[in-house]
Amino acid sequence: MRSSAIMASPSTFAGTCPGYGSNFSIGGVSVGIEGDRSADVALVSPLALFRSEAGLSHINIRVAWAEDLLPVSRRQLFDSGATWRLYEDDGGFQFDFSAPFYGEQPYRRLFVDSQFRRATLQLNGGCRARSSYPGVALSYPLDELLIMHRLTQEKAIELHSCGIVRPDGTGNLFVGHSGAGKSTTTRLWTEREDVEILSDDRIIVRRDEDKSEVVTPCAQGDKKKGMRMYGTPWHGEAMYASPGSAPLTRIFILEHGHGNVLTRLSPSHAVAELFARSFVPFHRHEYVDAALDFLQELVGSVPCYHYSFEPDQRAVDTILNFHD
Question: Which CATH class is domain 156-320?
Answer without folding.
Answer: alpha beta
